[in-house]
Design a protein that fits this description.
The complex is a heterodimer.
Chain A lengths: L1 H21 L2 E4 L3 E5 L8 E6 L3 E8 L2 E5 L5 E5 L3 E3 L4 H10 L3 H8 L4 H10 L5 H9 L4 H10 L10
Antiparallel strand pairs in A: 1-4, 1-7, 2-3, 4-5, 5-6
Chain B lengths: L2 H15 L5 H13 L5 H18 L4 H18 L6 H16 L11 E5 L6 E4 L3 E5 H6 L3 H16 L9 H11 L9 H25 L3 H18 L4 H12 L8 H5 L3 H15 L7 H10 L5
Parallel strand pairs in B: 1-3
Antiparallel strand pairs in B: 2-3
Helix pairs in contact in B: 1-3, 2-3, 4-9, 5-7, 5-10, 7-10, 7-11, 8-9, 10-13, 11-13
Classes of the chains: A alpha+beta, B mainly alpha.
Chain lengths: ~160, ~300
């Protein structure tokens, strides 16, 4: 029983240390995006980041996170681009209550990657991945979106409340 | 090591590993357990593995996995409908859709949002997981102005933001997947595993495509997407009236026979309209429709055959 208690203590200690170490780190969960000077998409990009990059979280405001890269660049990212490496007991509780299947979805999707897509494509010639590739190539820049908003008197250019 | 101890240690480890993906930390955790002397190194390693499985049941689907499901779903939709070759129109809906996505609850997805007009007179709109949004030419023709088209794109963005497509995946797929990849942390499968996982992937796609194209979402998801559409459109600066206008038009053109396409996959327009009107009223002061937008919409759809 003594050994048992010691084991539990060690694990608890590790847990506490991780919470403190990782509380202010966010990890990029989307393929790539820009860190922006100000907390809005039409703001100039100051750095480009990719999936898996770890960033220091400095501040959070209105759905945006102020981050610092390893190179020391500071700027803003939308919160949906990152996940916080923090063990949030409240969020966990909420997930278990309201989204019973979320974990099951995670389990099923684990491993749905490029390798699986390639195998699927080999056996399903009708699925038109070339058309999807072409669809993905169309990606308006933030400047184009800003011009569109301006011309249409949308958002900050007149339409919003 | 007793079963009770294994279970306890496994649970504690699951909580610990939920904090990190770092291999060195996992190894460190295994070392700590082994250092107690009661547990062999192999036992300790297997505990870490068990803990990872527990951890994965707590996590949500990753953005990357959703992206691959979305890509294949889009590929299947594009095997049924061809893209409408009109660069100007596709450019217009992509910039409009991106503006709406910026103002949504989920502006960033793994591969980003992409919009495409489908070359068919059927009236329909669909969104594959991760942000592949389709509107048919028949639907674009039904829109009288930019506010209406914006409302439809915003509704589809709402489905993506709330991951409605993924929720149509049958539970049995998860059980099958668990059998194959439950304890496997590696990203590369051997050929036998790959065949099994690809089989499950096909099943998942079947569920999602059937819901998007044939069966339609649960009506509560449609109401939710309508509500989000109003919110995203207004945040972008559009009048919220576009959605109601579209639904009125659809009600007027309701087919008398068996419902097909959009009418089959969506709750009745009259039903949605009643809710949309209430929610629009609750928004209070909102932007007004502007001629400058209606004019550029007219220009974008001018050459639709």
């Amino acid at each position: 029983m003594k050994k048992h208690a010691r084991l539990m203590f060690l694990i608890a200690a590790v847990l506490v240390v991780f919470v403190f170490l990782l509380a202010e780190t966010v990890v990029v969960k989307i393929r790539t995006t820009n860190i922006r000077r100000d907390p809005k998409f039409t703001s100039p990009a100051v750095a480009t980041i990719k999936a898996g990059d770890a960033l220091e979280k400095l501040e959070a405001r209105d759905g945006w996170v102020k981050v610092k890269t390893k190179a020391g660049v500071v700027g803003w990212l939308h919160s949906t681009a990152v996940e916080t490496k923090k063990f949030d007991l409240l969020a966990l509780d909420k997930t278990m209550k309201t989204q019973a299947s979320a974990g099951e979805i995670a389990l099923a999707a684990k491993g749905f990657n490029k390798q699986v897509e390639d195998k699927y494509r080999a056996g399903n010639a009708a699925a038109d991945f070339a058309a999807v590739d072409a669809m993905e190539k169309v990606k308006p820049t933030a400047a184009e979106v800003e011009a569109f908003l301006k011309q249409g008197k949308l958002g900050e250019f007149g339409g919003a409340r | 090591m007793t079963a009770r101890m294994k279970a306890l240690a496994s649970f504690a480890l699951a909580a610990t590993l939920a904090l990190t993906d770092c291999q060195a930390i996992k190894q460190g955790a295994a070392d700590i357990i082994a250092s107690t002397g009661k547990v062999s190194r192999e036992d300790a390693q297997s505990l870490v593995k068990t803990a990872e499985v527990v951890r994965s049941t707590f996590a949500e689907i990753t953005e990357e996995e959703e992206y691959y499901i979305g890509r294949a779903t889009a590929a299947l939709i594009l095997s049924k409908y061809k893209p409408y070759r009109n660069e100007a129109l596709n450019g217009y809906i992509n910039v409009m859709g991106t503006a709406l996505a910026y103002n949504s609850d989920r502006p960033e997805t793994y591969g980003g949002y992409h919009f495409l007009v489908l070359d068919t007179d059927e009236v329909n709109a669909m969104a594959a997981p991760g942000g592949f949004v389709f509107v048919t030419m028949g639907l674009v023709k039904r829109c009288g102005d930019e506010e209406t088209l914006a409302a439809i794109l915003a509704h589809e963005i709402g489905h993506v933001a709330e991951r409605h497509g993924l929720q149509s995946i049958k539970k049995s797929r998860f059980i099958d997947a668990f059998k194959v990849i439950g304890s496997e942390a590696s990203r590369q499968f051997n050929s036998e595993e790959l065949a099994k996982v690809t089989g499950i992937f096909e099943g998942v796609l079947g569920d999602v495509v059937e819901t998007l194209v044939e069966r339609g979402y649960d009506r509560k998801f449609e109401y939710e997407a309508d509500k989000l559409a109003l919110s995203f459109a207004v945040r972008t600066g559009y009048s919220p009236g576009g959605l109601a206008e579209f639904l009125v038009g659809m009600e007027e053109h309701k087919p008398s026979g068996t419902a097909a396409g959009w009418f089959k996959t969506h709750p009745s327009p009259a039903d949605r309209l009643a809710r949309v009107k209430t929610e629009t009223a609750a928004l209070g002061a909102a932007p007004a429709k502007l001629d400058v937008r209606t004019a550029r919409f007219a220009e974008a759809v001018e050459n639709l055959r």
